[in-house]
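ENTRY TYPE: protein
CONTENTS: sequence, structure tokens:
***
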Amino acid sequence: MATPSLKAVKERPFWWHAMWALVALYFFLCAINIMGGGLKVIGKNTDWLQTAIAQGDNPLVALLAAVLVTSIVQSSSFTTSLIITLVAAQEMSVRTAVFAVMGANIGTSITGIIVSLGTMRIRRQFRRSYCTALMHAVPNVMTVLLLFPLEWATSVFAGKGPNGEPGVGVLTSLAQWLTNAIGLGEIGKGTSPVKVITKPVVDTVKDVIGWVTEDAAVLGGVLIAVVGLVTLFCGLAGLVKNLKGAMLSKMEGLFSKVIFRNDFFAWLSGLGTTIAVQSSSVSTSLMVPIAGAGAVKLRRVFPYMLGCNIGTTVTGVLAATANPTAGAVSVAIAHVLFNITDNLVWYPLRMFPIRISKWLSSLAATKRKHAFIFLATVFLIVPVIGLVITEIFFF
């Protein structure tokens, strides 16, 4: 008697995977806003964010404090808006604010790295995901290493201003000149469509936890952030699961032949996506599971991330010109100049940041503790130690 063959498992149709991938994507986007919202609640109610960034006029303090703050709240838009507010209120000089904006550009990379950690169970996928996240972090760090000493040195050589204030560097001088030349008028601040569509879920989580914790605002912020983190990994797991199989093959063809067919289209995609959602944290983090699943080739990820860096400056310009002051607009323009430099320098020399990203991701895939070591070192240990050393020896 012949042994009955095992019944073949029926593969789910494409539309099924697409539907659940969209559901997972929605909760993934909700999670980023929930987590960031909870951390902002903590910062606003402890009043340490403003104190950390606004302390003193030392450029290194401004840089490291902005890295630390942005790493914690996971939003360069939040940090940049805070910096612009401090400048508009004359609580921070434009010179110091420019150094702080540089730090915000490093700190914003942490969201993508956290997202990549959700794929650690599958080594090959984690290597691709982590490499994708690093292609945002590495060029930002390298640009700071290039521009920070240049800006600081030229500010020292510039000497004191007419009223005895510290001199400004080449980036700040150019930003101030452009502010005077452009003469931007008042522009209304845009609304992120991502925030609009995720608002019901985000508000529900905040309201429920706020009701439970009542007057304990800091505890409520912690709980909101934890719920956001759990939702993030659940949404990421669902997104990755439904990107595989039949859906991946169709998406790979769409991305490779249409959206990411060359570097210019990849760059435009990053620029357009970030302008549309008004958050580089969202646009860069969204690429992590997509590239990790193999739908986008790693060589196209780098120009996409450069485009995201340009796109994120649009939000800052809109925020600065909503209630324009010369100092606030100068900081926003300095942010634009920083990221234009990032693009102009590292795209022609892309082999260096790409190779560094691939090397670090291979190292992390082999021994996963290296991923956490890099994360803690760049976004926490170095800023904290730097702040302590600077506080001891410069104040």
Remarks:
- The chain has one domain: 14-394.
